[in-house]
Design a protein that fits this description.
Blueprint (H helix, E strand, L loop, with lengths): L1 H17 L3 H19 L4 H16 L3 H19 L4 H16 L3 H19 L4 H16 L3 H19 L4 H16 L1
Helix pairs in contact: 1-2, 2-3, 3-4, 3-5, 4-5, 5-6, 5-7, 6-7, 7-8, 7-9, 8-9
Length: 187
């Protein structure tokens, strides 16, 4: 069954990504995208979701420009077909903002990450892990452009939610704490 094969390949790619096996993850995502395109056509949400996952992997590998191009493409297609607050559109917007931030364009990333956070909260809820992560990257962008007070406000909002959702030893909660510490040290 092609559907089962796609899910299996996608899960394998995710496992490779989660365990730092970047080359294997990239090859698996490429295979999933190719198979999904053959089965559903290039304008299907399954193709876009896997392309977004590939863009996230590219970000993790430091290939920001390639990630930006892919995330922008997915965002445009998903927004046209699914709307601005669909989870795929929101995820792609978030990835585009992260790519801009990695490219050293915090000022340009700021409105994109603001939009991404709003879209993710609309699609998934404010306490969803991805919504919280978007908030963290938004606070980081605010810090980088000198909006320390706004960054602190966002951290004061996100830190207790992250603690409740993730727990005190979770890496994402620790990221929030580290960012709060950096901001407090800078003031």
């Amino acid at each position: 069954d092609p559907e089962i094969l796609l899910v299996t390949l996608g899960n394998l790619a995710s496992r490779y990504k989660d365990t730092g096996q970047w080359a294997a993850a990239e090859a698996s995502y490429a295979q999933v995208i190719e198979q999904a395109t053959q089965i559903y056509g290039a304008t299907h949400p399954r193709v876009w979701l896997n392309q977004a996952n590939m863009a996230e992997l590219l970000l993790q590998r430091g290939r920001s420009s390639a990630a930006m191009a892919l995330a922008s493409q997915v965002e445009a297609q998903a927004q046209d077909a699914l709307g601005p607050t669909h989870r795929i559109t929101a995820f792609a917007t978030f990835l585009r903002g992260r790519a801009l931030l990695q490219l050293g364009e915090a000022g340009t990333a700021l409105p994109v990450l603001t939009q991404a956070r709003q879209r993710l909260q609309a699609a998934l809820g404010a306490e969803a892990g991805l919504s919280l992560r978007a908030g963290w990257f938004l606070a980081l962008a605010m810090k980088q452009v000198g909006q320390q007070d706004a960054a602190r406000d966002l951290i004061n909002e996100g830190l207790p939610i992250s603690l409740r959702v993730h727990g005190a030893s979770h890496p994402e909660y620790l990221d929030w704490q580290r960012l709060a510490t950096e901001l407090n040290a800078a003031s």
